[in-house]
Design goal:
Shape: globular
Number of domains: 2
Mean pLDDT: 95
Enzyme class: oxidoreductase
Number of strands: 18
Pathway: Cofactor biosynthesis; thiamine diphosphate biosynthesis
CATH class of the largest domain: Alpha Beta
CATH superfamily of the largest domain: FAD/NAD(P)-binding domain
Number of helices: 8
CATH architecture of the largest domain: 3-Layer(bba) Sandwich
CATH topology of the largest domain: FAD/NAD(P)-binding domain
Domain FAD dependent oxidoreductase: 8-359
Oligomer: single chain
EC number: 1.4.3.19
Strand content: 25-35%
Helix content: 25-40%
Organism: Streptomyces adustus
Distance between the termini: 27 Å
Bound molecules: glycine
Length: 388
C-alpha cells in the first residue's frame, strides 16, 4: 500500500452532493478531501435541474415533501452565496412551472394531484386549456388544462457542479482523482479508503456520496451498506435558435400515456427534454427507443419542437432508495456517514444536504428536519439482503 494521506473528512464521490458536503465541511474548519476520478461529473451532467418540490409531488411522499420544501426555500440564498464566492453564473431561473394534461385521463390525474397539493398547503392554480396556451403559445391546441406553479424554478446542474468544484478548491478541499476501492475499518470505526490504485486515504470521518454506486464499495459492513439502486434517465438537449425565442418561458411538464415528460428552457437557448425512467442496472446506453419516446411525447405537448436542432442525447443514473428519499448522516458504523439516495431530487436537495451533513459531521447527530432520513431506517432490512 502507498503512504497514507490523512484528512478530517473524506468524501467519496465528487458529484454535486459530494461537492456540497465537502464545501460545507471545509467551511466548518474540517480538513476535507474528495475522492473521485472526475469531480463535477455524475448525474448532474445529465439532469435537467428542475427545482420541482410541488409539481413532482408524489402520493405517499409527504415526509420527503418537507425536506424538498426546506431545500427549495434555501435555493435563492444558496445560489447567491455560491455565485458570490466563485463568480459562476448557475443559470438559476425563477421562472415557475406549468404542468398540463393532454387527454381526459391526464386531466383526471392532474386534478387529483391538484387536490393533494392543496391539502398539503402548496401554491398551485388550476388553469383551463385556453389559459395554459395564453401563458405558453407553443403548447398543442389539444391541451385540456393544467396547473400553474409559480414556485417551482430551475437551475443548470452542470454550472452548479462547476461552481462547486471551484468553491471546494477555494476552500482548501483536496481532490484525489482516483476510484474508491475499499472502506477501511479499524477498531469498529471507519478509518479511511483504499483506492483502486492502492493509495491509502485515512480520515477521521468518511462520507459516502457516490450516487447509485454507493452500495458497491467493498469493505462496507452489511448493516450499513446503503440500499441504493440506479434508475436510468435518458435526456435530450435541443437548441432554440434566436429567431424562435422565446420558445417556452417556463418549465412545461405533462403525463403522456402514463410517462412523464418535461421541457426545461434555459436562458442561453438550451431546451432540455426528459426523462425516461428505466431499471436496467448501471447501463447508460442512449437507445433509439428512449429518444423516440421522449421526442414523440414532447412533440405531442409542443409540436413546434421538431423544428429545433437536437444537440445532445445522454443517459444518467438516479440513485434510488426503497422509499425514494435520501439517506443522510451517521450510520451504525462510527465515522461513516451517508449522503446518497436522492433519486429524482438531487439538484433540489443540494443546499439542504450540504447543511445537514455539515451539522452531522460537527455534532454527530441530525438536525430535526433531517431525522426521518437517517440511514438507520434501513439497517435491519440490510442485514437480510445480498450486497448489490
Ligand atoms: N427530477 C427529474 C427526473 O428525475 O427525471
Amino acid at each position: 500500500m502507498s503512504p497514507t494521506r490523512t484528512s478530517d473528512v473524506l468524501v467519496v464521490g465528487g458529484g454535486i452532493i459530494g461537492l456540497v458536503t465537502a464545501w460545507r465541511a471545509a467551511q466548518r474548519g474540517f480538513a476535507t478531501a474528495v475522492l473521485d476520478p472526475a469531480p463535477g461529473g455524475g448525474a448532474a451532467q445529465v439532469a435537467a435541474g428542475m427545482l420541482a418540490a410541488v409539481t413532482e409531488l408524489h402520493f405517499g411522499e409527504q415526509t420527503l415533501l418537507g425536506l424538498n420544501l426546506a431545500s427549495a426555500r434555501r435555493w435563492p440564498d444558496f445560489a447567491a452565496e455560491l455565485t458570490d464566492f466563485t463568480g459562476h453564473d448557475l443559470g438559476y431561473r425563477r421562472c415557475g412551472t406549468l404542468a398540463v394534461a393532454l387527454d381526459a385521463d391526464d386531466r383526471a390525474e392532474l386534478r387529483e394531484l391538484h387536490v393533494f397539493q392543496r391539502q398539503s398547503g402548496l401554491e398551485s392554480e388550476w388553469l383551463s386549456g385556453r389559459e395554459c396556451r395564453r401563458l405558453e403559445p407553443m403548447l398543442a391546441p389539444g391541451v385540456r388544462g393544467g396547473l400553474r406553479v409559480d414556485g417551482d424554478h430551475q437551475v443548470d446542474p452542470r454550472r452548479v457542479a462547476a461552481a462547486l468544484v471551484t468553491a471546494c478548491e477555494r476552500s482548501g478541499v483536496v481532490f484525489h482523482r482516483e476510484w474508491a476501492e475499499r472502506l477501511e475499518v479499524a477498531r469498529e470505526r471507519a478509518a479511511g479508503i483504499v483506492t483502486r490504485e492502492g493509495t491509502a486515504l485515512a480520515a477521521g470521518q468518511v462520507v459516502l456520496a457516490a450516487g447509485s454506486l454507493s452500495g458497491r464499495l467493498a469493505g462496507l459492513p452489511p448493516e450499513v451498506r446503503p440500499p441504493v439502486r440506479p434508475v436510468k434517465g435518458q435526456v435530450l438537449r435541443l437548441t432554440v435558435p434566436p429567431r424562435y425565442a422565446p420558445f417556452l418561458s417556463r418549465t412545461v411538464r405533462a403525463v403522456v400515456r402514463g410517462g412523464h415528460v418535461y421541457l426545461v428552457p434555459r436562458e442561453n437557448g438550451e431546451l432540455v427534454v426528459g426523462a425516461t425512467s428505466e431499471e436496467l442496472g448501471w447501463d447508460t446506453t442512449v437507445t433509439a427507443g428512449g429518444v423516440y419516446e421522449l421526442l414523440r411525447d414532447a412533440h405531442e405537448l409542443v409540436p413546434g419542437l421538431t423544428e429545433l436542432p437536437l444537440t445532445e442525447t445522454l443517459a444518467g443514473l438516479r440513485p434510488a432508495s426503497p422509499d425514494n428519499a435520501p439517506l443522510l448522516g451517521p450510520t451504525g458504523l462510527d465515522g461513516l456517514l451517508l449522503a446518497t439516495g436522492h433519486h429524482r431530487n438531487g439538484v433540489l436537495l443540494t443546499p439542504v444536504t450540504g447543511d445537514v451533513l455539515a451539522h452531522a459531521l460537527a455534532t454527530g447527530s441530525l438536525p430535526d428536519e433531517a431525522r426521518p432520513f437517517t440511514p438507520r431506517r434501513f439497517a435491519a432490512a440490510a442485514l437480510t439482503e445480498q450486497p448489490v
